[in-house]
Amino acid sequence: MTPHETRSGAAWLACAGQAEVDEFIGGLSDNALASLPWLFEFWALPHQLPPEGDWKSWVIMGGRGAGKTRAGAEWVRAQVEGASPDAPGRARRVALVAETFDQGRDVMVMGDSGILACSPPDRRPVWEAGRRRLLWPNGATATVYSAHEPEALRGPQFDAAWVDELAKWKKAEESWDMLQFALRLGEHPQQVVTTTPRNVGVLKAILRNPSTVVTHAPTDANRAYLAESFLAEVQARYAGTRLGRQELEGVLLEDVEGALWTTAMLEGCRVDAAPALDRVVVAVDPSVTGGPGSDECGIVVAGVVCEGPPQEWRAYVLEDASVRGGPVDWARAAIAAMARHGAERLVAEVNQGGDLVESVIRQLDPLVPFRALRAGRGKGLRAEPVAALYEQGRVRHLRGLGALEDQLCRMTVRGFEGRGSPDRLDALVWAIHELMIEPAAHYRRPQVRRL
User: Fold this and answer.
1) Which residues form the Terminase large subunit gp17-like C-terminal domain (predicted)?
2) What is the overall mean pLDDT for the chain?
3) Is residue 59 part of a domain?
4) C-alpha to C-alpha distance for 131 and 134, rounded to whole angstroms
5) In a domain, 251, yes or no
6) pLDDT the model gives residue 41
């Protein structure tokens, strides 16, 4: 394999033997060898290279440290540079838009992965501080703008733009709109957005636009250029959390309007370990059919500490063991979860599967303590009292429940506003009902005998 047969020559070099590396380096001319460090196409990760096609906006969504800034800086270079230092490129007027001017200068222009650091000596632009712009040897310019001042984009015009960390701008919609009116030079003006995703309307609108293309990468994709201590620390602290899915995996997490759970609520209920528990159950929301197109089977393990009256009880969600597969697959996974956590009972919704649900479980373990549950109300109404317990601070989550938490943040009293069925959420609701809501309804305060 040659470096040209993969999108990353660096990946090829990393995997090649020493003889292949020596042969490749030895075959380069002095000029090619001197140019190699500045050939981003050779070193780039796949998510850092522009997609093909006639797009207007390229959104690079990634976790912290995933290489978004370097990709944006190199894209600007590719737009403004020509075949020689004095030759014109595809773009001559570029807008660099950050949340503040200082962030644009310190990150996009002068940062470790900024435009100046990425530019070879003979093509390096000059920073004109008074005019807040870069000037290239071929006359191209890139001017820094602050998203705090959207009106500053009224008047100038551009043929390219780089927008950094759009999802955290305070005036994101106004600044984005002003930029679109200004992006009107050339045959096909384009823009790149580099951002860690957040649940904001302007970003979601851009992603829905047919002229938008997206590349995505987690923090870990760029680990070769990150301190191992940083990766170890953030993964230990945030891996498996909803915040970690956003900040490390670069996943856009949407809290729908009127959701019963919010990201802030779930991050506030996080614990590293559960105390000694009085009861543990495994709850199952079974999928009756199997196969690639079937819904997942929700399997959630939870426990409770029953000290004092019911208003003092605390539940702990221990594991999301959900699986996709046929009845035997989820039954085996549920029984295995019981064994891992020493659960005293398996509870399952039987509205769809009826007696089949218990029958499948009994085939694998005839003695498993089992209780069939039937839903008499809609999902939203059934979930509402469980969400109320979260608001009261009476439910805690261990780490590793990111996919479950995504479903929670899409459930409203009107129903689930997401794709597919909220099987993980349903299993959680059944578990909390079994551990806290139903026992509380039948709780009798101990009688004190008067003498």
Assistant:
1) 283-434
2) 85
3) yes
4) 9
5) no
6) 77
pLDDT on residue 251: 74
Structural domain for 71, as ranges: 27-228
pLDDT the model gives residue 415 = 84
User: What pLDDT does 38 receive?
Assistant: 72
210 shares a domain with 285: no
The CATH number that applies at residue 307 is 3.30.420.240
212 within a domain of the structure (yes/no)? yes
Query: Where is the domain boundary, 228, 248, 277?
Result: 228
Which pLDDT score, from 0 to 100, does residue 7 have? 46
What is the phi/psi pair of residue 196, to 5°? Answer: -80, 130
59: β partners:
193, 214
pLDDT on residue 40:
78
Establish if 159 belongs to a structural domain: yes
In degrees and rounded to multiples of 5, residue 57 shows phi and psi of: -125, 135
Q: Are residues 179 and 286 in the same domain?
A: no
User: Does residue 126 surpass a pLDDT of 50?
Assistant: yes
Give the pLDDT band of residue 5 (cuts 50, 70, 90): very low
Question: What tokens appear for 292 in the block?
Answer: 């690639």
What pLDDT is recorded for position 6? 41
Other CB atoms within 10 Å distance of the CB of residue 52: 7
At 254 the pLDDT is 67
Quote the percentage of the chain above a pLDDT of 70: 85
